[in-house]
Design brief:
By secondary structure, this protein is α+β, with helices and mostly antiparallel strands. The protein has 6 helices and 13 strands. The strands form 3 sheets. A 6-stranded mixed β-sheet has the order 2-3-4-5-6-7, sandwiched between helices. A 5-stranded mixed β-sheet has the order 1-13-12-11-10. Strands 8-9 form a two-stranded antiparallel ribbon. The termini are far apart.
């Protein structure tokens, strides 16, 4: 009797179980910057396309965006540039994409910015992180009916400077280009919690495949584990 009463009146929180999904990702079809950008548009995170940064964008934001643009260029993300878009309708929080063509297929990269306490920091994510965000937007928006603000809060990097320059060949030193191995891992903060991404090449080379484990921990709002098979071109 006492234990039943305690359970009813306690403030114990039982964590939301993570939903698990198994998904496919074909580089030649899904791994293009324009395809991922279309997903951003369909879930309404990206809104109001403009060919260039809008003139009303403040100078600090413009400077940080230009630094990300230059980094994309330095790392050969120069193909299939998407238009700039207002992220969630905010002209001072743009979202845009670039693409690098690798031997295994296109590698889509996306840039945005984060403003915290009036400090603007750059964010860039590519390769398997982009694939995880793309599939996460589709699954959580479709099956779990998350709206644009919730998808942004659960998936898009925030709160700290985050740059992930992944390749489909595996882990490469971002500074030297040295190959470090067939697996790579990263994690980043989101507005709701965090995301952890593990990428592993299973069969290297054209015609092979890799796997992404994308662990979304959105606190009490959403938890999901995405197992994504990446088929190389």
């Amino acid at each position: 009797m006492g234990s039943l009463s305690f359970a009813k009146t306690s403030s114990f929180f039982f964590p939301k179980p993570a939903n698990a999904y198994s998904l496919n990702y074909r580089l030649s079809q899904d791994g293009r910057a324009d395809a991922v950008f279309r997903t951003f548009r369909e879930v309404n995170i990206a809104q109001g396309e403009t060919a260039n940064l809008p003139p009303e964008t403040n100078s600090v934001v413009a400077e940080v965006v230009q630094s990300v643009q230059q980094e994309f260029t330095n790392r050969s993300y120069t193909d299939s540039a998407t238009p700039f878009s207002k992220r969630l309708g905010n002209v001072d929080n743009p979202l845009w994409g670039r693409q690098r063509n690798e031997r295994l297929g296109p590698n889509p990269g996306f840039g945005t910015i984060q403003v915290v306490n009036n400090f603007v920091s750059p964010i860039a994510f590519t390769g398997s992180t982009t694939a995880g965000v793309d599939r996460g937007m589709q699954v959580l928006g479709g099956d779990e009916h998350l709206d644009a603000l919730e998808l942004d809060g659960a998936l898009v990097p925030t709160r700290n400077r985050f740059e992930d320059w992944g390749t489909w060949d595996g882990d490469v030193d971002p500074n030297t280009g040295e190959y470090l191995g067939p697996s790579s891992i990263t994690s980043y903060e989101t507005r709701f919690g965090s995301v952890t991404r593990l990428y592993t090449v299973k069969e290297p080379g054209p015609g092979g495949f890799a796997e992404i484990l994308f662990i979304i921990d959105g606190g009490r709002r959403v938890k999901a584990n995405l197992n994504i098979r990446v088929d190389f071109s």
